[in-house]
Every structure is written in C-alpha cells, then in structure tokens.
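Weekly sync, protein design subgroup
Attendees: M.S., D.O., the rotation student, P.L. (late)

Item 1: inverse folding check
M.S. brought a backbone from last month's batch and wanted to see whether the design step gives back something sensible before we order anything. D.O. pointed out we never logged the input encoding, so this time it goes straight into the notes. Structure tokens as presented (120 positions):
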C-alpha cells in the first residue's frame, strides 16, 4: 500500500503565499513523476505542476512564474510553493505520484486533497 498525505492548505488573501507539502509512505522502490493537480467546484481535475525523477519541471501556463514545484527523493516528498495567489487559484489541490512498488509494478497514487482558498 502506498499513501500520499498532503498538508499546508488554507485561506489566504490575494497576493499571499502558501506552501503545500506531500509525503509518500508505504512500499516504495522509487517514485517517477510527482505532481500537483487541482479541482475547482464544478470543474475537472487539472494538472498544475509536475516534476520528474531527475528534476525536470512542467507548469500550466496560468501558474508559471508564481508557483514552484520541488521534491526530496530521499524523503519521498514533493512541495508546491505558491506565491502571488489569485482568487482563481481557489481549488482542492491533490498530490499525485507514480510509485514503483516492486516486481515491475507501478501504482498511480493520489492524496486526499487539501483546500486552498484565496479570498479577501
């Protein structure tokens, strides 16, 4: 079993910052891509940022220059630093990871989600 546990969501004013963290635990032989998705009410879940196992980064255009994704491969964690937050960033944020669980098998793991609300 692999678990992803997120933390760091909350309420922030426009222009503020939040830092989301996600820790993976369980039977882990390695983690490929790690990513953050978000889902606003009534909308589909969309990719926000992704980081590969060798540190390559990808961002959706709307967060470029404001959000930074990073990971610690020794601790199996991924972090999303969010600056200059806007009301349209309000959503539930989900952590995602492609986990090698051994014997040639991979598991697409998801966290439970953490609410980010940007409002004055």
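Designed sequence read out in the meeting:
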């Amino acid at each position: 079993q692999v678990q992803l546990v997120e933390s760091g969501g909350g309420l922030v004013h426009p222009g503020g910052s939040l830092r989301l963290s996600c820790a993976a635990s369980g039977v882990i032989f390695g983690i490929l891509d790690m990513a953050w998705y978000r889902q606003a009410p009534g909308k589909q879940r969309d990719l926000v940022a992704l980081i590969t196992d060798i540190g390559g980064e990808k961002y959706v255009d709307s967060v470029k220059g404001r959000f930074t994704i990073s990971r610690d491969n020794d601790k199996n964690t991924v972090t999303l630093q969010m600056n200059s937050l806007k009301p349209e960033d309000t959503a539930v944020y989900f952590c995602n990871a492609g986990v090698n669980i051994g014997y040639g098998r991979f598991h697409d793991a998801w966290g439970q989600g953490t609410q980010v609300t940007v409002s004055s």
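Discussion: The first strand starts at residue 2 and ends at 7. DSSP finds no helices and eleven strands in the chain.
Action: P.L. to compare against the previous round before Friday.
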